[in-house]
């Protein structure tokens, strides 16, 4: 017999079977907030933890390799890492913005378009 959310059960065991009640309650709240089942929320938490562990292990391996290099090569690795970081896409992915689709009414969009057309890209030679 095991506990699920503080209740004794002999039913099917899942990801939340062996956790403490306070952690189950936290998972339940997060699951409700994101529209997921408690098991799905637990799986997501485990996946994030594994990703963090993997990231940490990679970082440690990189540091170990860097420690073996002369300073000049360490500098080259650093410059390469900076270049890689700069090459990453910036901004918010479109799939995260889809939820805002249709939020602004068509009349407001038309008014904004007219304001842009009327006031933007005009040069006032006396401004400066």
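Q: What amino acid sequence fits the structure above?
A:
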């Amino acid at each position: 017999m095991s506990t699920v959310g503080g209740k004794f059960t002999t039913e099917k065991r899942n990801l939340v079977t062996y956790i403490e009640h306070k952690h189950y309650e936290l998972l339940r709240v997060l699951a409700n907030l994101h529209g997921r089942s408690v098991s799905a929320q637990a799986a997501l938490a485990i996946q994030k933890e594994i990703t963090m562990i993997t990231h940490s292990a990679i970082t440690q391996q990189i540091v170990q390799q860097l420690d073996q290099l002369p300073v000049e090569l360490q500098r080259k690795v650093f410059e390469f890492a900076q270049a890689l970081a700069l090459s990453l896409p910036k901004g918010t992915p479109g799939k995260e913005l889809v939820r805002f689709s249709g939020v602004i009414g068509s009349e407001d969009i038309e008014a904004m378009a007219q304001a842009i057309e009327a006031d933007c890209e005009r040069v006032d030679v006396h401004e400066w």
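Q: And what stands out in the fold?
A: The first helix runs from residue 21 to 34.
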